[in-house]
């Protein structure tokens, strides 16, 4: 019955194909079958589900540094003219040369002098008392005079005559650009400060001078120079300040502008409203804590050149800085004291210098 056997074998084969759970190479024996042989069933291979690959994170881009130049600091327009700068300078290199005879008084003789200042050669007068010496020294700083009409001794001669006749060695500078001396810039009047500051140690070195701090006197612009010198050097023993301009340079600028309608740009290169702080750094009134000498002020109430309020303000600022200051006000007197007021002023000045310089 070949057809029956064939159908039976085919049925068994179909049953085997349905058994997908059998292991690979599993041996199946068909019992009771004429086909006594192993049958190898290869199971269907199911590929594993692939694990998805996570995308790599997008790298953070570091910003490329930009080379931004550091801004240059704004230069100080008053560098070299500040009170602090003037304190750092060295003064007094060289020596005074005593030149030709100039004039004589009752008890003194006057001579022309020349002396060096930062490469300049400046001039002035020296009034030497008769006698052996050594004599106490006073630097006499005259007020402003137009260069075209200036002559040595103008505005200081009366004071020098009075003091030299009483035994004081008086040295009166012409300042730069005057008396045949060399000229040079004078911004904010600091050139005049430097001219006077150099003269102090040079005068102290003179053989007929007393080896001690000097006295200093000044009238008008010379009084303002004296005030400035007091804030820069400690070599002043006593100072007489006669009708000074304001020690606040912004106020001095305004005074000159109001009085004359203009200012000289060679002295005032820019107005205070352009840089008020810069004006503060060059104004002596802001440095009165450094003053190391007693100060005597003289001023007339009828001064049409510099109002008496300038001396009042200076005196108040010196007192606020705990300085020794005396203010003498002369009712009805002008910019230059005359007559009885002048004699009173001279007497007070002499007593003041005798107290602090000796003689």
Total E-strand runs = 11
Structural class: alpha/beta
Overall shape: globular
Mean pLDDT: 87
Number of helices: 9
Overall number of domains: 1
Poorly predicted sequence stretches spanning 5 or more consecutive residues: 1-48
The CATH architecture name reads 3-Layer(aba) Sandwich
Strand order of the largest sheet: 3-4-5-7-6-8-9-10-11
Top CATH class: Alpha Beta
Main beta sheet strand tally, sense and closure = 9 strands, mixed
Termini gap: 168 Å
Describe this structure in words.
The protein has helices at 2-18, 83-88, 157-164, 190-204, 221-232, 249-260, 276-282, 309-320, 339-357, and strands at residues 27-28, 39-40, 97-104, 108-117, 120-129, 137-141, 169-173, 214-219, 236-242, 295-300, 325-330. It has 359 residues and is α/β, with parallel strands linked by helices. Strand 10 (295-300), helix 8 (309-320) and strand 11 (325-330) form a beta-alpha-beta unit. The chain has a single domain (83-357), classed as Alpha/Beta hydrolase fold, catalytic domain (Rossmann fold, 3-Layer(aba) Sandwich). The strands form two sheets. A nine-stranded mixed β-sheet has the order 3-4-5-7-6-8-9-10-11, with helices on both faces. A two-stranded antiparallel sheet has the order 1-2.
